[in-house]
Amino acid sequence: MEILKTIKRHIYLLIMILVAVYLIIDMNTRLSTLAFLENQEATLQTDVNNLQATLDTVNDRIDYARSDTAVEEWARQQGLMRKEDDHVIIPLPGSYATPTPTPYPEIAVTPAPNWTIWKSLIFD
Description:
By secondary structure, this protein is mainly α. It has helices at 2-66, 68-77, 114-123.
């Protein structure tokens, strides 16, 4: 009977150890997942901040494009429009003289005989 009680105690102890090991492994897995998700959250928060700054910039440009100042600027620069009191001067292209090319002198190359080439390669 005593042997049975000790075997039962050992089995219970073994089961408790296995449960404790399982809980430690599960906690380690959860901590690893938590660290990964926190890194991912920081990265995504940075992306959100960058996109929010881009959105603010785009909204500012849209507001400027809808303003009267932008319309007047476009009309004067690209639309070639004027106000009543303006005097518009449009420059006309002038006639440009074509430059004459400078002649380059041709250099005549006189081939050297083979024996002088071999002599300079060996003795020089």
